[in-house]
Records
---
Amino acid sequence: MAIESEVLVIGGGLAGLSSALAAARAGADVRLLSYKQSTLQNASGLVDLLGYTHEGDGPLTDPYDAIPDLPEEHPYRTVGVDGVREAMAMFDDVTDYRGGHTDTNALLPTHGGTVKPTARYPKGAAAGLASDDRDVLLVGLGSMVDFDAPHVAAHLEAAGVPFDARGVTIEFPGDLRADAKVTRYAKLLDTNGEVAVDGRMVGARDALADTIEPHLDGEERVGLPAILGDDHPGAVRAALGDHLGVDVFEVPMGPPSLPGLRLEDTLFEALDEAGGNFETGNPVVDYAGEDGHIEEVYIEKTGAKIPVSGDQYVLATGGLVGKGVESDREGVYEPIFDCHVPHAEDRYDWFDLEVFGDHQFARFGLPTDEQLRPLTADDDVEFDNLRAAGSILGGYDFAAEKSGSGVSIATGHAAGTTAAQEVQ
Amino acid sequence: MAPSPHVVVIGGGSTGAGITRDLAMRGLDVTLLEQGNLTHGTTGRMHGLLHSGGRYAVSDQASATECIEENRVLRDIASHCVEMTGGLFVKRPEDTEEYFERKLSGCEECGIPADVVSREEAREIEPHLAKDIDKAISVPDGAIDPFRLVVANAASAQEHGARVETHSTVTDLVVEDDEVVGVEVDHSAGPGKRVHGTEGGTEEIRADYVVNATGAWAGRIGDMAGVDIEVRPSKGVMTIMNSRQVDTVINRCRPKGDADIIVPHETTCILGTTDEEVDDPEDYPEEQWEVDMMIETLSELVPMLQEARTIRSFWGVRPLYEPPDVGSDDPTDITRDFFLLDHEERDGLDGMTSIVGGKFTTYRMMGERISDHVCDQFGIDTDCRTADVPLPGSDDFTVLRDYMDEFGLRSPIGRRSVERLGSRADEVLKTDGPNPTVCECEGVTRAEIQDAISQSGSDLNAVRIRTRASMGNCQGGFCVHRMASELHGVSASGGSADGAAAGEYDENVARRAWDELLQERWKGQRHALWGQQLSQAMLNYALHATTQNRDNDPADGDPIDFAAFDTGSGRPGGATGADVAADGGRTDGN
């Protein structure tokens, strides 16, 4: 007999977690199945709603304002402006992210030295806002090749930021390996572990602040790459800030991204508190059902196929990166339910020749009806009890629009909420 | 003794670099001109096979004999560019026994060590060979890094006083009284090392002799002097796999045919190739069917290729040439021999010789013949030494193990650095600061990147060909911005020919170089965009566009009205206040 739930969510990224959370908060019996670590480890941890229109206009100051003009197939059009607002309210309720006090986008510095529009940002990034006019000292580590502080500072100035930015490179105190992992620094700062400085042992937080202090030249805020603790980032920032007498912030980074992982942890905790179940580590590989109705899905576990069933299903397995959408030389497909993925027949039409051109592959994903149910090539509903959310949806280019997190949260919330309504 | 003549060599591929080194070592004053990077043309677009000669042992025994001879020379003088993988000519049941025997006897006739190996033995050497192959012939094929080799030749030439100018296009030949007396050059970023954003200039270089070593482009140089050089460019596709499905070179043992070779190369394998005549060496179709056909056909030898991950494909053009009276219809019939066209003898135009045709493996021998010819023009009688003197990086290659110990380089990354650098490991890797890995796919450290920047200026594409950074699985997705950061702030002095201090590479220079490499890395991936590589492409796109907003970089676009955006909660017009740094977390007190 299968393990049974009312709502079964497949996928543990932002969309899956938002779906499960919405369904659980609506009172449904929810189970979330996730395979590997989600793509949140690749994500900066910023929550973008809409930074540019589909036609490239922007940066937008008000993301909500632009939603009604998006193309009809855009997932935001499916859930509507109110749907997006409700979803963001849930997000704000379960996280300590900033930005919810206004509909206006924030601009955040990136680790490459540009700025980007985003709707919500972690507390740790708040003092780094690019529209804040206080001067900035950026501090990089000599061995951290992803964040070259002098280069980032020079790039920010070229981007026209309304403050002076200066970058310095220091060596992290103690005798860490040149290729120490991000998590090594974070752990050391979390525990305030002792490091050797001039032959005596000093707590890592004080030692780091001591190293930075001589470089300060009147700046009121100091930015570091996002390595400032994993479990206790607030305490780490506070300790550094008190010692230096400035505001300390983190610049979001690429993978492995601590802010992304912290967000994942926060949402799993919220799901737990809301009474949702979750199970990680094994992929969903197949399903059983007929007449457009899913009976159960199968998890592959040490070679065996374990059936798991729900009344309602949410598919949030991601896009091309998360492998919710796959491809081979013949075409593009959705691997679990074989839902229809529209794509050009000739794979040379899948991309543009310019690196940042209008790539069709960026919009690969499932078309849906107004309830987020995937549609066949003939516009029929694939399964009456399956909804899709997040990057697996087609019809939008999250990278160009800076809309990835927002679409995941908004469609996740909508799919989870509707699924819960169906079972009640 | 009279001052040595000034020779201009046009073309920075293997042949041009080889000639330049040879002439410089003989004491001549030489300038090498290349329109792009070193290896920009045909040399940078080959599969990196160091021929044993086996390939030509039936069809062209003269070439085969030259190949095995030069194979031995290059193992000697370019040891850090060569990996002696060995090679197999594999016979499938549908390939004829007769050809197999002719291949075997041909190898013997040309002095190429060759042994028959049974199916079982072949599959022991290469477990992924198809189960139903018949047998194979083993030969001393190898892999060679064309980038490293050409850079080493150019470096050696410079050590012997030559001037090497990349990104310098010859726009005209200066002809006076039926004699070529110089060239006009357009430098894209000023003479010397390339610096992005530096204004270029034109230069007339007077020369006693001009060597046209531009391969498939030779006809264009000929046109500038009104002489006709009928090169027949022939394109071939190569596909790069993300791992080494085989560790020896795998050839199909049958007469000429497309898609019949797999060359293991560093961390990858390169599948080759096709042979199709084109009109223009720079503008020809690159088509999906060519890639598909190659994967299908080579899967007959190594079935796992059918499902394997490819990371990009690229096309090269062979500079095929045949004397006007031969008239082959099929480019695969055209000889791979090289031709020295003395335009004085041929066209009544003094002062210039063109070299066309030929093969990468015999580049040094071609250089020797041309250099002999040039020296003849001036009555200079100096011996060629290029077969005896190791290239920079290849001296004392036997001491590699010592370097490993000295630098504590036991990790795979260190091992690969030392293998790439050869005897230069010492000078490059001895660094005071931390030496983190910049390109993880290929294990390239900061010290190597910095060394390459010191050689090639702000051109990150030139840094790439020297180090392999950005050439692995991720195709630069994780390292192009890091490479740009390595460039930023580095001293650019010493780069300009006029001796002026050039300051350092600023943010704008680094950004231009970054854009250029990102686009260059994208270009070849489009032929591999399915499966895992399409997933990688989407991740790269997300990392650059979503995380960094590089597609809307405000430094390149319209000014942003920063004041119109959120300035933080609870503190209008300014900072976010102390709560940011000090307040507690939601659940765990952080």
---
Amino acid sequence: MLSAAVLVGFAVAALAPFATPHLGARAGWVWATLPAALATWFAAQVPQVRSGAPLEQAIPWLPSLGIDLAFRLDGLSLVFALMITVIGTAVVIYAGGYLRGDRQLPRFYLLLLSFMAAMLGVVVADDLISLFVFWELTSLTSYFLIGYEHERTSSRDGALQGLLITGSGGLAMLGGFLLIGRDVGTFRISEMLAEPAALTTSPIYLPALILVALGAFTKSAQFPFHVWLPNAMAAPTPVSAYLHSATMVKAGVYLLARLAPAMGGTAVWFGLLTGVGTATLLAAATLALLQRDAKRLLAYSTLIALGALVVLLGVGGTDGAKAMVVFMVAHALYKAPLFMVAGSIDHEAGSRDVTELRGLGRVMPVTWAVALLAGVSAAGLPPLLGFVAKEVAYETLLPHAWGLAALVAASAVMITIVVLVAWRPFAGRETTAPRSPHEAPPSMWLGPAVLAALGIGFGFAPDVLAQGLLVPATRAILGADASFHLALWHGVNTALILSIVTVAMGVLLTLAWGPLHRFLVARLGGVRFGPAGAYLGFLDGLRHLAAWQTRVLQSDDLQRHLTTIIGFAVALAAGTAFVRGGIAFDLPPVSGTLYEFLILILVVVAALATVTAQTRLRAITSLGVVGFGIALVFIMFSAPDLAVTQFLVETLMVIVVALVLMRLPSTLLRKPSERFVPAFAAPIAVLGGGLLTVLLLSVLSVPLDRTIPAFYDAASYPEAKGRNVVNVILVDFRALDTLGEITVLAVAATGAFALLRRIGAREARDVAYTAPRGSGDDDEAGDGERDA
Amino acid sequence: MNSLILRTTTRLLIGVLLLFSVFLLLRGHDLPGGGFIGGLVGAAAIALYAIAYGYEHAFALLRIRPRTLIGVGLSLAVLAGILAAFAGEPMLTGLWWIRDVGPWTVKLSTPLLFDVGVYLVVIGVVLRMLFSLEEH
């Protein structure tokens, strides 16, 4: 049942492209039934999980490597699963209104629902490799969703940046997982956590922690990897609300929390997490003051929250874990609605620039109400859940002065952000907006309203939330028993005084925002500094490196290209044979029938004819004779499958080459400047052929190992019900290899297609210069030319 | 190519060649053949048609775009691998359905489905390259 709950999303997502066009305006409501049903199911598991008995299910996946598709639902997973499905319901409904009539809506729902399923997979996976696969799926779906409006450069760049940064982090994380798996002897997370001390005392602890943390920090946009998150705001707003604030960016936090019992509690852990988290807090708080776009403001406030979550995890202990989960739930419940409100403003009023909009509250009262409700929680004011969360976080950080100071400062900036997003565009008597605004449709305020209302409900009764979800989650993060109670009113204590200080600072900052913002923009606005600049520099460097090595190694002259490849292979193989020995000439006596010798002579003559040919047609025909001769050899030695394949490939080669030949001059003459290539290529070719001959003869002198053919002979029929061993190997015993090969074929065909189109476009352009024609280039190829 | 002999022969041969390619595909598990070889024969048949009648006509004969063939083929191969999961087996484990229907024994299996996927990918890849060469 658990695996079905995780995987059903993929099945429904696969239906989305086909069904969405028939659903019309109801699409959002229909697709929302999936997350809603899942949310109900997960909610129904609360009593069992609370009782300390997690749900478990495992499907063997690669048993030979000890990898299973294993799922486990404990307190921590359940909190995340509920956030994903509850906010998912609101977002799916919202998207139906926000993207109403959008041509690409079917594709959007495919991606959004796939993301939801992948995200559920991440938080419920109990196997590191499964977790990694789902993790990468969330990165991929995020890539496509950020690049949703792919005609816009900013969308494509933002999508690529997100993918490159989270993808590199994911790769580092995989390395960390493999290290851990090798050290502990299992990929099963629950087994790993059962022996908490094993990992922290291991010599691989530090490298593994750094690698895993790289994955978590890139995904959760921690400093200095935070640059991708603001640029991800190019995605449609439902995506920003869902992936880039409430769920996906918290995957890194989830991972750290998940592994905390096994990897946490050390000085390195504390230093790394609190250090990086604090840097994120401060960087985000500063950069937020540069923004005027409502979505980017919210993106930086998300960074503040993510930084705070990492700091709290770094502090650890019951207090840290408790504060982390409370803060996280509170953040999800206010940030998603705030994003959706920002999207509604954009949708109805035509702008997201908070200085450009005034008085929207008169025409969009419901949206404003939602904005205020979520905003008060975001600002950390009573009586909402955000207040409880902030108080708990302050209390936890009391012993850590600098972390506390950073959080207080960042919380003051949060207040400014809230005023800018949830107050400033709505307040005022006169309505100013680029478009004449009106209230958003119910699909666009219902979801955010419910989420914001949850924030106030849990604000008054935080202990309901705590006992149902947060205590079990805290226990999972600690790997030990814990219990606590939450209340809205704690009495007058240090945390409350700090809250009052925060509000005062926030008010002052808000009042000073105008001049401060202008000052900061003037000083820092156009500068590409720090991590953002480093990213661009790295990308440029990579492009130059690729261009350089392509020029040097992969010349567009085929002969030079082949010379490089064969020369390198000869050097490697001959070098290895020379150093290691292993060339032996213990040959059996030469024997063979007359036919075999005749075919051999034919092949040799044809090969000589190929290299001495003066025209292309002659060279190709001779080469064909070589191929057919070899196919005949295959037949003689009873390898019909090989022979048939060889015949067919030769035939198709002739067709392909004939098509190419029609477009090329018939002679092989080269320009004088290129004459040196044959002179250089001939010895390389002779060396290559000679080396292969030596190697093959050497192989012959070693007695053939019969165990492998004997295995296939014996196993082919009983195990795979086939008598043709070649085919049985291809489609059964080594089917994974075949799957890889046909994938390569498909990619190669696509690449060849794209290259040929480019050549076609270039020729069409050259022709156009000399003799203008009516027909223009097609767009796709035209784009490629401009990029070059 | 405007050759009456080629066109007439092609018209006679194309059906036989396509049937032969399917025949090779289906017998492959027990006798020489299989998805790769069958796919090459199928592609060669269409290529012959394209040479005789031009690629637009071959395209019309095929009705499906080569790239769709590639996509469907890859999906079938992956599906054949995933089906094993529903039997509680690791990916790409062969599942068999063998029944006697009248005088014949029908053998259906996920390896066969996989081979059909290979067959379609091979046809799609070869034709995609050929057609894009012909276009210029």
